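Help needed: design a sequence for this.
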């Protein structure tokens, strides 16, 4: 299950080095008060970034794009990070290098550093934390055979409620309740509907459908987070020669699709083979999904020259 794959093992936790407000320290020394504003109210922004083994080093996937989105998220919430894009980028590289990780999941997290009771964040300072942890498949063994999804009864938040383009901690309460509902109903993950009734995304993933060898994915008007893996898949598909449609997607289109899959930093490319008990296509990973997945993994491991600029190579200590 995803939660198990996200767990930091105790032996790594003991030696784990993190970055907090400009300093490298042990994970066990990076402590915050329980009354801190983000603990109580979710006032933080974050990123999820993957690094993959490449030769004797590691390659961070689309590092600059992730850092830029991180900065945009903070800007939307009027958070002053206190560090430049270059400083954040270098700090991420430093954390990966110091932990000697050939592949990992990287979590930059900016949060309001105040334990004063009260909702407003105006005038309150922020802190910046960066960690990198060993990380496997988000959906575990289910990833290879495909996952079963439930269309959630909970609607995806929209920009009239919260800024959906910000990767903000508080936004994910919406995702948590949808994902929990799906798992309690015997499914692997949820699919969320926009306020207007169209397919939006998964709790932490973007979604693609395949119909007649065309890729279809919800557009920016469907209350989605602008996923970097989503953007990567669109560019890879177009380079292969596939037609990509970004538009509003009706719920029933998922049931009648030839194939479907999730994309995301954690999920990578994960086939969806069943929705609401209805088999999607053949009920197994389809040929277009396989084609895109194979190309994606060549890219992230540095075996594709076309998209080599997406990788930031780190020489490990």
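Sure. Designed sequence:
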């Amino acid at each position: 299950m995803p939660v198990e794959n996200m767990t930091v093992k105790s032996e790594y936790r003991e030696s784990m080095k993190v970055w907090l407000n400009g300093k490298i320290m042990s994970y066990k020394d990076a402590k915050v008060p329980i009354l801190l504003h983000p603990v109580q109210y979710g006032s933080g922004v974050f990123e999820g970034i993957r690094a993959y083994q490449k030769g004797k080093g590691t390659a961070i996937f689309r590092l600059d794009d992730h850092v830029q989105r991180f900065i945009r998220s903070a800007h939307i919430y009027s958070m002053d990070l206190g560090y430049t894009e270059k400083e954040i980028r270098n700090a991420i590289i430093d954390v990966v290098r110091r932990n000697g990780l050939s592949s990992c999941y990287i979590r930059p997290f900016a949060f309001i550093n105040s334990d004063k009771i009260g909702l407003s964040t105006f005038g309150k300072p922020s802190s910046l934390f960066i960690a990198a942890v060993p990380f496997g498949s988000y959906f575990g063994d289910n990833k290879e055979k495909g996952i079963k999804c439930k269309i959630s009864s909970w609607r995806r938040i929209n920009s009239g409620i919260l800024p959906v383009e910000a990767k903000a901690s508080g936004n994910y309460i919406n995702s948590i309740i949808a994902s929990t509902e799906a798992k309690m109903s015997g499914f692997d993950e949820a699919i969320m509907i926009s306020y207007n009734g169209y397919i939006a995304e998964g709790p932490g993933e973007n979604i693609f459908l395949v119909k007649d060898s065309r890729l279809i994915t919800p557009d920016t008007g469907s209350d989605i987070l602008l996923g970097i893996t989503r953007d990567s898949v669109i560019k890879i598909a177009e380079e292969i020669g596939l037609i990509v449609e970004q538009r509003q997607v009706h719920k029933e289109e998922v049931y009648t699709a030839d194939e479907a899959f999730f994309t995301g930093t954690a999920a990578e490319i994960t086939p969806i083979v069943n929705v609401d008990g209805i088999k999607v296509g053949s009920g197994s990973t389809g040929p277009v999904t396989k084609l895109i997945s194979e190309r994606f993994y060549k890219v992230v491991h540095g075996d594709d020259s076309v998209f080599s600029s997406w990788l930031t190579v780190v020489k490990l200590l």
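The first helix runs from residue 2 to 6.
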